[in-house]
């Protein structure tokens, strides 16, 4: 199981290697969105919880938190966090999960390079959410990835370097094939990572059985893309997509398919 081995290897280097969405979120939209669904009588599943960065937001806001992740070593680190209402399970989310909750949270997990496995994950997440429940799911944005590269080209031009003279390593994220790019598969630190377009998310979430789909930008500073961004590089800032979606209260055959 390649995915499990990959995330197990990351283990204790996680804090340095994995982008911290909660800390980088410029407008604190992620914690505010979780608060919209907070209910201390409800259960939340943190799908792909990693080392449990979301627990400090989820644990006080829900009766119980169920942290699920493919990586044993990340779960071992997550268990060291001191929250008394969190339980855990090692599980590959591309396979059905036996669990049930009113709320689901999933941050930068549904981004496998095998695009159909992401569809499976979304369907498996959907199956765990009770009727009337909701999810908040963060995924990388293809628009933002290309926009950041466009800004990189602008920056080079301003400093006298033509696009064709830019060092290939600076645009190494685009190393894949044409069909990779169309499917949103680009590289972050040489790891193939699925990125999404907004209309694509609407289709995929509806296909997975979600309704009330709302897609917003979760913005970060330019330092998330470049170590020393120039002062003129301002808004629009780079972003991930944050998707809020619901599950119909009552499923009837007469209800139009979302
Ligand atoms: C980028 S990290 C994000 C972790 C956490 N959600 C956060 O925001 O800090 C991706 C996480 O997804 C987990 N993961 C990757 N593939 C998975 C799968 N097929 N099933 C369950 N978890 C998976 C990894 O082990 C890792 O913890």
Architecture overview:
With 258 residues, the protein is α/β, with parallel strands linked by helices. It has a domain at 2-140 and 195-222 and 234-246: Rossmann fold, CATH 3.40.50. The chain contains ten helices and nine strands. The strands form two sheets. A seven-stranded mixed beta sheet has the order 3-2-1-4-5-9-8, sandwiched between helices. It is globular. Residues 3, 7, 18, 21, 48-50, 53, 69-71, 74, 92-94, 107-109 line the site of S-adenosylmethionine (SAM).
Question: What key phrases describe this protein's structure?
Answer:
about 25% strand; seven-stranded mixed β-sheet; alpha/beta; about 260 residues; globular; binds S-adenosylmethionine; about 35% helix; 10 helices
How much of the sequence lies in strands comes to 25-35%
Write out the CATH superfamily name of the domain at 2-140 and 195-222 and 234-246: Vaccinia Virus protein VP39
State the assembly state of the protein chains.
single chain
- Give the overall shape, derived from the CA principal axes: globular
CATH topology of the domain at 2-140 and 195-222 and 234-246: Rossmann fold
So how many helices? 10
* Total strand segments: 9
Write a compact overview of the structure shown.
This protein has helices at 2-10, 14-17, 21-24, 29-37, 55-58, 72-79, 115-128, 142-158, 178-182, 198-207, and strands at residues 39-47, 62-69, 86-90, 101-107, 129-140, 185-188, 191-194, 211-219, 239-246. With 258 residues, the protein is of the alpha/beta class. It has a domain at 2-140 and 195-222 and 234-246: 3-Layer(aba) Sandwich (Rossmann fold), CATH 3.40.50.
